[in-house]
Structures are given as C-alpha cells and as structure tokens.
Design goal:
This protein is of the alpha/beta class. Helix 1 packs parallel to helix 2 and helix 1 runs parallel beside helix 8.
C-alpha cells in the first residue's frame, strides 16, 4: 500500500488486525483518506490456525493478514505505516498521532482497533505452548481437543469450574487445577455427576514437546497427563491509548455505542477491545460497522462544508 504524500487524513486507524483491516477496506472503498498504523503484534499471531471464520476456517492468522493487506493495496487512498504509536493528541479539529517512524499525521477521526492482551501467569513452559496447545477459547480450539484429556486453570473473569463446564461439551476428560474457591451446591452436584477432577494445587510447569502439551506438573508435586491446557486469564487493553485519551471504560473494555463511538468525540473503537466475544470474524464485522459509522460522520462533515 502506498503512503499518501500529505500527512492529513480523514481517518487514522490504529491496529492492523481483522477489525482495523476491515475498517480500512470499507473506508478505502468509500474513497476516504485513511492511514492504517500497525506494529504487527496481533494477539493471535502465536496460534497455528484460526477457526470459526466462514471460508477461512483452519487458516493461519498470518495468511489471513497477508491476503487482507494484498486486497487493501488496490485502494490508493489507504496508506499503511508499520510503526508503533507513541502518543495521540486530541484537539478541536481532530487527532494528531506521533509514530516511531518520526512522522506525526493528523486526521479528523480516529479508530482504535488495538485489541486485547492476555495477562498470562508465570508458568514454566506456558509461553512455548501458548496458541499451540494452551488456549483460552473453547470455540476457537475445542474441536481439536474433543474427547482428549485436558487441564483447566482459572484466575480470569470466570472461574475454572465455569470454564470446565463449557469445555465438557467437547471432552469429559478434565482436571481442574488450582481451584481454591468455595463451591456452590450446584457446582458440587455437577462435579460429582460429571466426574471432573479438582485439585487445589496450581500448575507449576507445563511439559511440552515443541509447544505441544504432554503433561502439567502441579505445585503439590503431582503430574497430570494431558494433551492441552485451557486458561481463564485476566484481559487487558492491547494499548493504553484509550485510557490516555480519556475514553470511558466498561471493565477492561472500551465503552462504545451501537455505532462504535467512544465517549471521546471523534474517536471510535472496534474489535476485541469493545466486546467479550473474541472471534476473528466478529472483530472483522465490528470493523465494518465502525467504518460505516465513521463514513456517515464524514458525509455530514462534507455536507456542512458545502452549505
């Protein structure tokens, strides 16, 4: 994609994952001057395959991004900057974005498609297995582990028991690790009926073969053979830009209306950073919806300039 000579744009999109790329395509087709800024650190880059994306099920995240960028290149009004955003300033006329490339483009509107990040626990072997056989989302990776032994660890927005109940539809060979919370009557009844094992000791080490889990070692010394580990881990924003701009938050997510507008005038947000449903196809749809709302706002601006 070629870069516009001017550093003045209609929209600056921060984040080049599914949401940001989808928004850039829609805005490019609307003949808007767009700058897409992306440092290339997508959350799912560690995954071997992505799932649940109709027509792209089982494709690698990297291949999807490659295809998207190739298709985006046909729209000459869209520029691409492979840089980290250092700062964003809001003014009465729009936004100024400082990049590590040394440039500081400005735009009327801003779209944050910066995603979310997993706050991974410090467990030996986890980072090597992350995205290969250590996961967070049953809908993304449950099919591949069906009827196989797995370990489940909590600590995030939902308990390990809740995650185990969700995974029970894919496999019944489940061991919940590190659960120390009091069980409700319903949970106790379900555990007895399901046969799911619970161990209060947290996972100390993941034993793997080139990222593929073979077993987990617990703090108490026990070793549990399994083929995968699912974690419920806390989430955080993939960037602190929304916080620095003063966007209103809803827990860890950016609060946005039905048109993806944030509480900061002129600033929109799309993708994983505005929802608890983290699927590539959902993020792409969110980017499209934000782009249409952005173009509607630009149309209103154009009309005001002519009357």
């Amino acid at each position: 994609m070629r870069r516009e000579q001017t550093e003045e744009y209609d929209v600056i999109v921060i984040g080049g994952g599914a949401a940001g790329l989808s928004a850039a395509v829609v805005l490019g087709r609307a003949r808007r001057r767009v700058l897409l800024c992306d440092a290339g650190a997508q959350r799912n880059s560690c995954a071997e395959k992505m799932h649940g994306f109709l027509s792209r099920d089982g494709e690698s995240p990297g291949e999807l991004l490659k295809i998207c960028k190739e298709q985006l290149a046909q729209y000459p009004s869209v520029g691409f900057e492979a840089s980290v955003v250092q700062a964003v300033e809001k003014s009465s006329s729009g936004f100024r974005v400082e990049l590590t490339s040394g440039t500081a483009p400005v735009a009327d509107l801003l779209l944050l498609a910066t995603g979310m990040a997993d706050a991974l626990p410090e467990i030996d072997g986890l980072r090597e297995a992350w995205g290969r056989s250590a996961f967070v989302c049953p809908y993304c990776d449950g099919w591949e582990i069906q009827d196989r032994p797995i370990a489940v660890s909590g600590g995030g927005v939902r308990s390990a028991i809740d995650l185990a109940q969700e995974l029970y539809g894919w496999t019944r060979k489940i061991t919940v690790c590190g659960h120390t919370e009091s069980l409700s009557t319903a949970q106790t009844t379900w555990l007895h009926a399901s046969g799911v094992r619970v161990d209060a000791h947290p996972i100390r080490r993941i034993v793997h073969d080139n990222g593929h889990v073979r077993s987990v070692q617990l703090e108490g010394g026990d070793c549990i053979d399994c083929d995968a580990v699912f974690f419920s881990v806390p989430l955080k924003q993939g960037s602190d830009i929304a916080e620095r701009l003063g966007c209103k938050m809803n827990g860890a997510r950016i609060e946005a209306d039905d048109c993806n507008r944030t509480s900061v005038p002129g600033c929109f947000a799309a993708g994983d950073n505005v929802t608890h449903v983290h699927q590539v196809i959902v993020a792409a749809a969110s980017g499209v919806r934000a782009a249409i709302a952005i173009n509607d706002e630009l149309v209103c601006r154009d009309v005001r300039q002519l009357v």
